[in-house]
Please model this.
Amino acid sequence: MRWKPTALGYVRTDVSGLGLLWDQSRIRRLAERLGYDFADMVIYDPKFGRPPLARLRAQATRLDADAVIVPGPEHFEDGRIPGVLVEQMDVITVQSEETYARRTLPPLPEVPPATADEA
Model:
């Protein structure tokens, strides 16, 4: 049983460029500050031709990650946070420190209130 939620980092080499190590450092610092157990940094390089989210989603499943931390939405295709990723885990951006949470509170069922006689 884990005592801290697990987070992954995700950066694209074509977006970070020379700032790759800086982006990785900021991701690790934010994970620590938010209380995550930082498990792995997934670095995507488009020159290898794999789908951008393939390794990230596989690692998230394997490690049962609760969140992925990215420098900003520009590290995803079209600069948008993928909905399929948010369905799997929380997505946290470093730059604006926004969280795209996977958990939403389900609507409460309509249950009539209990009376003292029923208790």
User: Anything to note?
Assistant: Residues 6-100 form a domain with the Rossmann fold fold (CATH 3.40.50.1390). DSSP finds four helices and five strands in the chain. The chain has one domain: 6-100.
